[in-house]
Write the structure tokens for this entry.
Amino acid sequence: MGTKKHYSKEFKQDAVNYYYSSGKSIKAVAEDLKVSATGLNNWIQNAKKNDGVVNHRGSGNYSSDAEKEIAKLKKELRDKEDALEILKKAISILN
């Protein structure tokens, strides 16, 4: 299995801009940039939905530190709830 590469928001935006300005196919641009054609296509589709701007699922998507903290706490809560469900199932099996 290959490892998943993570690209910066700037790289993704530059890749989409390059695709539009080059006149090349998605496959050709992906080969030029050494990224998967599927990944590049996803970035292009994302940009089309957001007025040409590629949304990035990194920490840069939050408009404030408070929103970033809220997202972190929500994730922690989901993780704890999942662990609690597992423990409940384990207890019911042991009874």
User: Anything to note?
Assistant: The CA atoms of residues 46 and 52 lie 8 Å apart. The chain has a mean pLDDT of 86.
